[in-house]
Amino acid sequence: MTTVDEVLSDVRVPARQRSAIEWLAAWCSSRADVSSLSVGCSIGRGVADELSDVDAAIGVVSPTGRPGRDVVERVETALVASFGEAGDVVDVLRDGSTSDDFVIRRVFVQYADRLQLDLAVIAEEDVRRGDAAPDFVPVYRAGVTPSPVHAQRSAYAVSAEQVHEWVFRGWRALLDADKYLRRGSLWEAHGRLHEARAFIWQVRAAAQGTSYPQHGLPQVLDDSPDDLPPGIEDTVAGLDAVELRHALSAASTVLTACTSACSQRFGSEPRMAAYARTVLDDPGRVEGSLPPR
Question: This protein's superkingdom (predicted)?
């Protein structure tokens, strides 16, 4: 059987994370109801450091959806009961979706030595592979038939409707930040500015064609850390009205540029954008008028 060292031979994995992956692989191989283990994100991309968590998917021998829920939950329960074998556990958080069509259990464990495991327990057929999860590396597989990759959404896929929503929400957040700034509520203005920046990163990721563009900032930094949106640093402000006004103006400029970079792939920007720019360009204006079509 292929060893963890062989699978991860071309991927940089710090010692503590490697030992955790080895433990997970051994645990999975000891159970007849576990079919696979894949690790990904920073480890799968080869950019992990000593502070990186271990993101992994555990495939379960079960039907998909509601018929397989009991098996998925049984594996989750057994996994949680075994975490102490890998180190001194501080705490565990368990959540997930158990709809009729899709069952996934998510488990996050914090160890005393700062190691973190972020795990998904899921029916084997639902495990994403290939272009649907390009940064995930199969570590253990118990002779299972690969998932139907052709039926899974590509990690690079993003629709015009999704980009339109991110752009719209970005402008809405900037308008809210402007509203709170006019009221003198600096904390609320600061919070909405930060939210707008998160949408900017998503639009930027989509423009660059990164994988998982919905992840925004982490994907941009992983894929092209030296190619950030010009002026993005000017969108950061403290709890100062003048700084916040300057940052709102900068965010308007950056969001416009990122949207323009997406235009050939995703069409025109929402009318909300022109309206918001009109409001943000005139801090003394309380009511903006709708721009002409």
Answer: Bacteria
3-state SS of 78-135 is HHHHHHHHHCCEEEEEEEEEECCCCEEEEEEEEECCCCEEEEEEEEHHHCCCHHHCCC
Backbone angles phi, psi at 219, to 5 degrees: -70, -40
The mean predicted confidence, pLDDT, of the chain is 86
- What is the average per-residue pLDDT within 231-250? 95
Per DSSP, 211 falls in state S
30-70 residue pLDDT tens: 999 999 999 988 888 778 888 888 999 999 999 888 888 99
Q: Has residue 204 got a pLDDT over 90? A: yes
- Asked if the domains at 4-151 and 160-280 fall in one CATH topology, the answer is no
pTM higher than 0.85: no
Side-chain-side CA neighbours of 233 within 13 Å: the count stands at 3
Nearest residue to 54 (alpha-carbon basis) of 96, 5, 95, 110: 110
Instruction: Please tell me the CATH code under which domain 4-151 is placed.
Output: 3.30.460.10
* Cβ pair 45, 133 in contact under 8 A: no
How many alpha carbons lie under 13 Å from residue 25 in its C-beta half-sphere? Answer: 22
pLDDT at position 290 over 50: no
The β-bridge partners of 103 are 98
Domain range summary for the chain, segments of one domain joined by +: 4-151, 160-280
CA-based angle 41:16:221, to the nearest 5?
30
